[in-house]
Specification:
- The structure is a homodimer.
- By secondary structure, chain A is mainly alpha-helical.
- The first copy, chain A, folds into 2 domains: 1-43, Homeodomain-like (Arc Repressor Mutant, subunit A), CATH 1.10.10.60; 50-216, Tetracycline Repressor, domain 2.
- Chain A is built from 11 helices and no strands.
- Chain A is globular and about 60 Å long.
- Chain A binds a DNA duplex through residues 3, 24-26, 34-38, 40-42, 44-46.
- Chains A, B: Keywords: DNA-binding.
- Chains A, B: Residues 24-43 bind DNA.
- Chains A, B: It comes from Pseudoalteromonas gelatinilytica.
- Chains A, B: Residues 1-61 form the HTH tetR-type domain.
DNA sequence: GTCTATACAGTGATAGAC
DNA sequence: GTCTATCACTGTATAGAC
């Protein structure tokens, strides 16, 4: 792995563990055993590193959160989405821990973030419409946007919510599974009688995963 | 108003507008037209100011979010709670914009925050049980805790969610009303047929308030 | 590409006069 | 209670040698 990639991955790891504010460029360099000067050879500044991480974040969503095509099984796709949301919430924790700060220091990044989130909102709405087509949920047109916002907010801020009530800031995988369960709770509220069973099965799956992880530690 | 109180209120205002990280003790002092030395006469340090603000925050909740007593009209109380949540979300925005940072720099504050949030969770659960008693919502025992967490998370992180998708960080009152609507959306999903109308009336109220505000600006 | 050394700009905080 | 002056410290970022 190139030094540049190593810097990115070390940054993600340290940011997630200690928060973006607490981690300086010096910390990143010394944790890697390189000099600060070397770090600044590869990146213009700290924001530059964060922009590269944001690119990874949006890549992840573009790759794993593709809109449904008409023939797809909506429920099957939903399961896939939940798994990739797990990945996202786990890997990019720090981004939402400090979202306001990060965006307020970098106008360009903020513009990119806003555009990306608007795009994402539409995709989430498409997924909800597809779930409705598939008879899995029942929801009024006018409520779709509101629900989509709630889903996005939950995915974004579940980890900060959890971290705020831990003395040790470290998250476990079980915490993320609990976040996925909150997403399912939101959907379940609109679930049709016929498919309640299937959604409950998904719920049981993540409940079991959360339990297993808890016992491992 | 004493200089001490002025410092607290100026801090809240500046923190809300520009974020806690961006505002230094020097900014606060110069915005008030006093010297930094004077500020440090009244407060030990920046954390000390924030602790005083947290005291205001928890006072507000203790005063306005009293548990229901058996005779109370649950729906009427709900309306009161929503209004005081509005107040809370409006006045203490910054606290949740930077929650992780703020708590990670002050162990004592974090302990206080965690204890307070645990207490609050129980109160929210009590309110939900009372709403169920009153026949307004229908919910399984096992889902109450999950819903209570979702409600708390929504109240806490609605403003950061909105701010993150604005180029200018300023919030309007209409944004907060939209947050209250999200709280109602969560409740509505568990609402009984008989009381759906009344909850929809509450919804219409805040929808109207959001509209009015929007047109004022 | 990588290092060492260092300049520079805040920020938090204090001492002592008034 | 309030001010002025000032300091120590930290984090970012660059210059120049290797």
């Amino acid at each position: 792995m190139s030094t540049k990639d190593k810097i990115i991955h070390t940054s993600i790891e340290l940011f997630n563990r200690h928060g973006e504010r607490a981690i300086t460029t010096n910390h990143i360099a010394s944790h890697m055993g390189i000099s600060p000067g070397n770090l600044y050879y590869h990146f213009k500044n700290k924001e530059d590193i964060i922009r590269h991480i944001f690119a990874l974040y949006s890549d992840h969503l573009h790759t794993h959160f593709k809109p449904l095509t008409p023939g797809d099984d909506a429920l099957e796709n939903l399961a896939g989405y939940l798994d990739s949301l797990f990945e996202l919430m786990w890997r990019f924790q720090f981004f939402y821990d400090n979202l306001g700060d990060i965006l307020s220091r970098d106008e360009e990044l903020k513009k990119g973030y806003i555009a990306f989130q608007a795009e994402l909102l539409e995709q989430v709405k498409d997924v909800l419409f597809a779930l409705r087509e598939g008879g899995i949920i029942c929801i009024e047109d006018e409520d779709v946007t509101e629900l989509a916002h709630m889903l996005k907010m939950t995915v974004s801020f579940w980890t900060p919510y959890i971290k705020a009530r831990r003395l040790s800031g470290e998250l476990a995988r079980a915490d993320i599974y609990n976040g996925i369960l909150k997403v399912l709770l939101l959907l379940k509220a609109h679930c049709t009688e016929q498919h309640l069973e299937q959604v409950n099965q998904l719920r049981a799956k993540y409940l079991a995963l959360a339990e297993t992880e808890q016992n491992d530690h």
